[in-house]
What does this fold into?
Amino acid sequence: MRRGTNLPAVGTFNHTVVLDAIRRNTEPVSRKEISATTGLALQTVRNAVEKLLADGLITEAGKRINGPGKPEMLFELNSEGRFALGVHLDPTIITYVVLDLRGRIVAESMMHMPPEGEPEEIIATIGAALDRLIDDSGVDRTRILGIGIATPGPLDPANGVILDPPLLPRWRNVPVRDALSAATGFPVILEGGPTAAAIAELWLGGAVAHDDFVFFFLGSGIGFGLVLDGQVRRGSSGNAGSGGTLFVPVDGLGGGRRVDMLGRLATPQFVVAQAVADGVVDKPVPENDTTAIERQFDRLLALADGGDGAAVRILDRAADLIATALVSTVNVLDMEEIIFGGPFWARVEERFLPRIAAIVDHSPDRETRHPIRMSSSKVHGDVVAIGAACLVLDDTLSPRPTDLLITV
Amino acid sequence: MRRGTNLPAVGTFNHTVVLDAIRRNTEPVSRKEISATTGLALQTVRNAVEKLLADGLITEAGKRINGPGKPEMLFELNSEGRFALGVHLDPTIITYVVLDLRGRIVAESMMHMPPEGEPEEIIATIGAALDRLIDDSGVDRTRILGIGIATPGPLDPANGVILDPPLLPRWRNVPVRDALSAATGFPVILEGGPTAAAIAELWLGGAVAHDDFVFFFLGSGIGFGLVLDGQVRRGSSGNAGSGGTLFVPVDGLGGGRRVDMLGRLATPQFVVAQAVADGVVDKPVPENDTTAIERQFDRLLALADGGDGAAVRILDRAADLIATALVSTVNVLDMEEIIFGGPFWARVEERFLPRIAAIVDHSPDRETRHPIRMSSSKVHGDVVAIGAACLVLDDTLSPRPTDLLITV
It folds into this structure.
């Protein structure tokens, strides 16, 4: 499934292959080294380097003397040659980032989701916030490639439409891609939050050790970003990764177990509802307000950290349910790596990660016995907003073998 | 994840591209047409055609007159240019097939799994049975590319080892690939049953309408074959598709639901156990004998067909549990197509398919609302044995873009 926006390509396939080779090197590289890593003929590399220099995508980075003969010119990515904007539209917080070509954050800002207002007005607000962020960052507008926006699903990414996310009740069939593009003048890509996070890991994450991994996303909802054979997998309609719909047993692993879906058990909203029912925290006020829920979730965490037994039990149960769903997922997809992140993950990480890891490692329900690497995302900042911006970099800069016409 | 056996490749990348173009055409094609579909230069096609003719993989198939000028020579696959052997090692039945290059069955046989005997002896029996089948089929041994063998998992496909399948209790760490290769003199590929079935669908199935599909396998166990972007996905250790490990609610969709894993609820063994517990059929004798279980499963089906309410309820429940697990799967992978098959599927198809389709289509737990195509496999014969042989064809005949070194 290809997304519906084709951002302008940067040069031909060979240009992107050369750019990719330069980008993936932390050290400056010579034309000969590029030729060796890419398999491209030296003359092809020469031509590509010339074009990339002219386009401002790479810069000269000194010379290297290798014995007698002419010194070799070295090249590196021109980090400020292009920029990408990323937006994470979460039900609670909207986060904005500007990334440079290396995926480094040049500027960022955030705001609470307006509690009132139609989607059209909120999209105008997003456009204005991006405009301010660009001004504050001082980046050259002509060097901005486009905007990636990540939102809760289900989506129609091919047409850039938010369909009917349970977590965004006022957003029904909203053509966010075209509306945001009209508001800002930039091309826009729409993507699901967990998939955007997986893209950020692929681009920037030191955590990724394998070609196949699941990004476990804990935000207002729960979702998976799926990477198989080094590529994100979006499914037929671009909505893969709906991890909140997995059934899990509620009462541990004994007989007579009850069952419900993970998304109705382990999201902050439902964990808080359980804590309210058990008399551990007060009802959020107003009741369905995401910010109020967040406040009570933090209160529950503070109680658990203070040793409150009931609070600990509620949080442990949420971790156990997540672990059980991950055992199913690992069995179906045979994954070797799970990366955890999302707006709520950092708060629960110390409590959840060792517990989840122990269950996934030792579950009698595991089909395979190989070790599974589990770690928190190493991407600093809002991994989803960063991933949304990486999408833009990815769409314009990555070589795609599928675009290659065989003409040998 | 690549399998550990590299069968001898048939020519270079371009040769396989040309062969693939000829294979995919039901009608004979000219060199010009091959050049147009593949993007290869006419001279490259000429050279490849010459080599493929010399190797006996294609044959001349008449001429076509296009206006004035020389008539065009046409080519088609030489169906009998090569053959592949397939083995489906099911806990109940072992099935053998010989396929020609088009994937048509040239010969087949089957036998019950010997109730006694060490894996080594059974592998020798398999070797002898293949030997007899080759003799009976009259195919030229020098034209046999190799053997594909599909078994229950978990497996170590990279090393060709059957690890510890619950369904094959005597098979623990059995190096079946090397043992069968030693017994027969042919190269061998080991694969999981549901994945082999998915390969058969990709090669031969008229049923496949989409690039992404799940093959739902109902044999002695339950499993998924996963195809994303037109490729089977085996996961990190080659054991993806363990669908029997998904949790499902047992008692319909009301409150207070109990839960267990699909593989402990909806496989023939457990359906029969339920029917025994409910007094609908007698205990299989001997109790854990797969053939005896099969007999009682057929008895249960016959009772349901005769209108026995208790038998109908037990079977309906199994279908409902499968449907619920498929809703989770479709949500996580965002699939548009499910193909059903496997040794037990044909017997339950009429009863299960409409029921499962209705649940998957209308489930309130579905994340997306797009239609999902659900159908039974159109592959005639044992889809797993055929798929195992198709693996051999696939490994030797399919062009792999990843093997292509970019040297433009």
Remarks:
- Chain A is about 40% helix and 20% strand.
- The CA atoms of residues 195 and 225 of chain A lie 4 Å apart.
- Residues 210-377 of chain A form a domain with the Nucleotidyltransferase; domain 5 fold (CATH 3.30.420.40).
